[in-house]
Design a protein that fits this description.
Layout (H helix, E strand, L loop, with lengths): L9 E3 L3 H11 L8 H20 L2 E7 L10 E7 L5 E7 L3 H11 L8 E12 L5 E6 L12 E5 L2 E2 L3 H11 L7 E9 L1 H10 L4 E7 L6 H4 L26 H6 L4
Length: about 260
């Protein structure tokens, strides 16, 4: 993971494979036909890291196909706790595909009965100058309590942090206490990091890349977060720089 000064709850990827994948996702040469597959690949990578680091682990003994002919053919050691539930929050619209990709990857290693896919219908609210003023929550589907569960919020573009903060508010109002609340971004800004970590200490924030392209030269030459007051990743209408440009519109091939 990348060395930074944002605190222990922020984990930023630092490998050439993921960096190349994100560069391809944001490339102007990548269109709506290629983008879904790339986003799925990126979120499988994110989910693998999140489960390995955040999910409870238990020592287990598991039979293999060799056990029928060799009684000693057991795999023993730490594995993901299969009794712990995973709740994945699909935020309409850009978060739908990432959440589905995480769901499909999760049920490959966890019992399908313990993996849940919720839906939150959230949208930005803006003023007359197109500045983001908040997040509106409309009709949503929450599949029950989250006590003891790992709650994952895949939000590809962590711009202002408003989506994650609102989603965390929703889950913290439900019965029970989650084992862990995790946000998963492809790209995130310093503004979003600052907002989420201030409003919800303890929420873990994973991102493939921190985007701070409008920061001062001194900040850009230093580890992320070293000169937090000089960092900026949002332009005047709250789009990420360098970012990927209209992720929700591209994933849905929106014409408006």
């Amino acid at each position: 993971m990348l060395t930074h000064h944002y605190g222990p709850d922020v984990l930023l990827f630092d490998d050439a494979y993921f960096a190349t994948l994100l560069a391809t996702i944001g490339s102007p040469d990548t269109g709506t036909a290629q983008l879904p597959g790339l986003v799925r690949s990126a979120y499988r990578r994110l989910l693998q890291e999140i489960l390995a680091r955040e999910f409870p682990v238990r020592d287990q003994q598991v039979a293999t196909r060799m056990t029928a002919i060799e009684p000693r053919a057991f795999v023993r050691g730490p594995q993901l706790c299969r009794e712990t539930r995973l709740v994945i929050c699909a935020v309409i619209r850009a978060g739908l595909l990432p959440a589905q990709a995480c769901y499909e990857a999760a049920v490959e290693v966890l019992p399908s009965a313990n993996v849940r896919l919720d839906f939150l219908n959230m949208s930005r609210t803006t003023d007359a100058a197109h500045h983001v003023t908040g997040v509106r929550l409309d009709g949503s589907k929450i599949g029950g309590p989250v006590d003891g569960a790992v709650v994952l919020i895949p939000d590809p573009m962590g711009a202002t942090g408003g989506t994650v903060c609102r989603a965390v508010d929703v889950y913290r109002q439900l019965d029970g206490t989650p084992h862990r609340l995790v946000a998963a971004h492809l790209m995130v800004t310093p503004e979003a990091i600052g907002r989420v970590t201030a409003a919800h200490p303890g929420v873990r924030l994973y991102a493939g890349r921190v985007d701070r392209g409008l920061s001062s030269e001194r900040a850009l030459r230093s580890p992320p977060g070293a000169f937090a007051k000089e960092e900026r990743g949002l332009n005047d209408v709250q789009y990420i720089v360098p970012g990927a440009g209209g992720m929700g519109e591209l994933l849905t091939n929106s014409w408006v």
